[in-house]
Amino acid sequence: MITSHRTPSADPNRGRRSAWLTRPMTSPARPAPVAARLRSALPPVLVLAGAVGYLGVVPWVDELHAVPGRIPPWVHAALVVLQAVALLLRVRYPVVVFGAVVTLDLVILGSTGGELGIGSFGVILATYALARHEERRTVIRALVAGAVATTVVGGIAMAFGSSEQPLILVFAAVARIVLQYVLPAGVAEYARGRERLLSAIEDQARMAENERRISVQNDLRAERTALARELHDIAGHHLSGIIVSAQAASALVERDPERAREMLQTVQSDARTTLVDLRRTVGLLRSDDADAQGGGDGSTLGPATTPTIAAIPELVEAARSRGQHVAYTVTGEPRVLGPLAETAAYRTVQESLANAARHAPGAVCRVAVRFEADTVELTVTNAASSQRPTSPSRDGYGLWGMRERAELIGARLTSAPTDEGGWRNRLTIPDEHRPDDRPDQHRSDQ
Hints:
- This protein has about 450 residues and is of the alpha+beta class.
- It contains 13 helices and six strands.
- It has a six-stranded mixed β-sheet, with helices on one face.
- The longest helix has about 90 residues.
- The N terminus and C terminus are likely disordered.
- This is histidine kinase.
């Protein structure tokens, strides 16, 4: 049998890599706790400063003495202080704080004929906090209720306690609604929109970074897979030949020393070829500068040639030199395919012969290449072997690699036992752009 059916074991690090790839990026540094607390306490402090300033200017401003009502100024200042205290909780309970601050402002308006506006600043801050931290529907309902209450209470207070002209009173009422509710809510909505935009930009950047990392990891994984496949094809083929030749030489040492020496020379040749091919493959991991300097032992290695279908006869001859019985036939007019297709075809034959030597020693192998009008078909068949395999069956990385190469070029790989107890690998490579304009020829090498 050419190869085993077992697939390679799962990558044990795949879960850890996926978890690392999907882990979110480090969030930007947050402001220091002290600075955040100072910024949060700034609005209440400003309202409190307004209350203190009001008490400080009352004795010096005559207009404040003419404000209607009999409530002393310190009471109004105390109501503003209560607004400042309530604003300390504006983030946690924005609706409750908004209601409390607006109610205190209504008390000030109602007790001063609608002319004292020292509570307006607290309402502005409460409105901003409400619009920043609550849902839009709740914000609209609260603002409408506050605006209506302010209009009703302020309008009634000014109608009965103010001596200004009606037009001025209407303008003052509208200006109060715009100043206390409309402008703060608009600024808060703009700020929320900016935050959402920045958050979307950060999320997009995070997703782009994750996609980039995933792309890099996928590219790296694909390169490693391709390199592992190449190493397996090269090492598996040559080392299998070395093992077969060494066993044959061991069996011929006593009865045919000359033939044994020839087999040992084949072993040496295969070992050197394997070393050169491995150096060239590992050289793919080096930088361009390192490649330009040649091998690490002072030798200069030229670029590795791309395996081709035309080089398959050399594989057959190498297998025969190791003692395998291989028949080779070509049907149709040979032509050159793309580099990936040529490599896939070459590696499929190489791996099939290596597996035949490993799992079916002494069995006759047949390599057939058929060039048809729109396809190229390669078939490697080995008969059943009566000898014991030279090495135990492994995990089937060879068959796995052949399938990966077939999928890469859109080919079809069929691997199955034959009716006679052997094994057959057939690779069918589509060649749709090939015109059917030349007659078939037949050539065989038995």
